[in-house]
Automatic annotation (TrEMBL):
Region Disordered: start-end pairs: 60-112
UniProt protein name: DUF928
Keyword ATP-binding: no
Signal peptide bounds: 1-35
Entry keywords, A to Z: Signal
A Pfam family the protein falls into: DUF928
Biased composition (Low complexity): 70-112
Length: 307
């Protein structure tokens, strides 16, 4: 009896151990599978990452970014004090100068009034300027196969005012386009489409585009400015054939390989707009931006990946 009872207990214990092991295996399996899938996706994203090839070696650097090199936020305090000081100085100087011909009292009165008014108007503005404004552009003149491309940029902070956008044709005095865009409400990537303004790029002509935050319209040397250059270059027959045989969600890899920066970043960004949580797309854009020395813009995509 004792032997049989002991055997039963051992059998029950053994069965219990098996069931517990199966339960633990069932719990642990999904997490291990998820981890494996994530590693596989990361491996795939690294292996298939686009590589941008410069169309012209040792070309002149044309891109400019707005912001301090370390990305620290600047305020408008310097602009405010300059505005007040210059307002007083210019008002007094102009007033006194005109006073020589119109009467010293009248000139001094107007000078003080205008100087104080202009200074006070400037002093009202007390908003921090974004730490960085980076055109999504290669350092050198970038190519596009689109006569009406979409231009993008990264901005690190909100801006309550307008942003001035200008497109210039090289060696032409009048701008091709000058308009004002509402400032962003958050950090992020923003864009302007030339098609919305009926602007068409000429073939083999270099254009320079500017983004400017203008703290003081009377003192444009204080502008917070970013700029880059672009050139429309019709695709070759070989490139057109490659593009026609490439899936739409992989076009950016071909554009990057052939040196068409603006087309590569545009195609990739459009995909991200439709699938913002796609880690592979984010990683690929991050790698493209790093290849053209835009680390802070790339860091934005990295931050979005970690959310």
């Amino acid at each position: 009896m004792e032997f049989n009872f002991f055997s039963k207990n051992r059998s029950v214990t053994f069965v219990t151990m098996i069931l517990a092991s199966c339960f633990l295996f069932t719990i642990c399996l999904p997490s291990s599978v998820v981890a494996t899938n994530q590693q596989e996706r990361q491996s795939i994203s690294v292996e298939n990452a686009p590589i941008y090839k410069l169309p012209t070696k040792n070309a002149e650097i044309r891109r400019r970014e707005g912001g301090e090199s370390r990305g620290t936020t600047r305020g408008l305090s310097r602009g405010l004090s300059r505005g007040l000081t210059r307002g007083l100085s210019r008002g007094l100087t102009r007033g006194l100068s005109r006073g020589l011909s119109r009467g010293l009292t009248r000139g001094l009165s107007r000078g003080l009034s205008r100087g104080l008014t202009r200074g006070a108007e400037t002093e009202i503005i007390s908003v921090p300027i974004p730490a960085r404004m980076s055109p999504f552009a290669s350092e050198h003149t970038g190519f596009t196969s689109d006569r009406q491309p979409t231009l993008r940029w990264y901005i690190s902070d909100s801006w309550p005012g307008k942003i001035e956008f200008t497109l210039n044709e090289t060696r032409v005095e009048e701008p091709v386009l000058e308009t004002y865009i509402d400032g962003p409400t958050n950090e992020g990537v923003y864009q302007i489409s030339l098609a919305d303004y009926n602007i068409t790029l000429k073939a083999d002509v270099e254009y320079e585009w500017f983004l400017a935050i203008v703290p003081d319209p009377e003192e444009r040397s204080a502008d917070f400015l970013g700029s880059a250059t672009i050139r429309y270059l019709a695709p070759s027959d070989e490139l057109s054939e490659r593009l026609s045989s490439t899936p739409k969600n992989k076009l950016y890899t071909v554009y990057a390989e052939k040196g068409y920066w603006y087309d590569a970043i545009d195609n990739l960004s459009r995909l991200i707009d439709t699938r913002p949580d796609d880690s592979i797309l984010r990683t690929h854009r991050m790698r493209l931006l790093k290849q053209v020395n835009l680390p802070l813009a790339a860091a934005y995509d990295s931050k979005m990946l970690s959310k």
